[in-house]
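Sharing in case it's useful to others searching the archive later.

Someone asked me privately for the predicted structure of Cobalamin biosynthesis membrane protein, so I'm posting the question and my answer publicly. Question first, with the sequence:
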Amino acid sequence: MHSVNEILTLLSNNSLLLLMIALLGERYFTLPLHWHPLTLFNLLATYMSAKVNRDNVQQQTLAGLLSCVLLLILVLVPLLIFRWAADLPQLVDLLLLYVALLYQPYRHWLATAAVAIERGHKRRARALMSRLTARDCESLSEPGLVKSWVELRWYYALNYRLAPILAWLLGGIALLLVVRVLVQLHHLWPRYIPRYRHFGQAPAMLTQWLMWLPYQTVNLLLWLTHRDSRWAVADSHGWWLAQARQQQLLAQRTRSSLGGPLRYRQQRYSRARFNAGRQADRQLLRQERKMLMYLGRAATLVITLLLIFSLVYNQKPW
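And my answer, the predicted structure tokens:
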């Protein structure tokens, strides 16, 4: 019993240890999507949008904002009350952290899509990409598939992995749940689809505010590790500024072309291009996969070293 109490005390005093256990659990023991709690949240959000998303433009914008607030209340209040009343709040934190860090299914689809592109199986690559985004992927050429893959790979790495980790370390379980709920709503209600053009404005804006720190952190790292990169964005038309800066830095780093227009429901939406060299090809795909692999290993090393330091010197990292 004494050792159990020591373990619980250690978990409550070390957020990095909880994070590492949750990351390992999510990596090797991921629940199937149809059993995952976030699937129930997706169904609830879809049902709510079907009920309150009307034709009036002003009503759509207000309804989207109120729906975000209501869903945040429905998720946060019961879970935080349950955590507060639980005898083992550390285990509740661990469970919520495990659920909020869902990433492996998307990572698997992206890795499989990359292999399909490299082998020239464009039809399979398009089908896999359609699972990850609401944009039209059926007519994408190979350069279009590569550029979409690069954009989506970084999007999922930052929004579904880095942002929840930073939220947990900086704001605890409450901020983690807020970030995950808004990221999920932004994915479910994309503004480029006519039905959500106004209804999805609120989650899109709130998500951009919350994603500012993760995106700018990665952008700063990309800029500092490549001497020829330019920080100022020449053209951000159709992009969120931080994401435009990211795409520009990646294009300059790989000396390739990224960005360009999108298609949703057969409608074309103009976006800025970032031309810094050759057309997007399979070599660019391999470069991006290698870059993300090194970044992931570096982040794992940093978290591990901080965890070891906190355990050896008995210091609470946050």
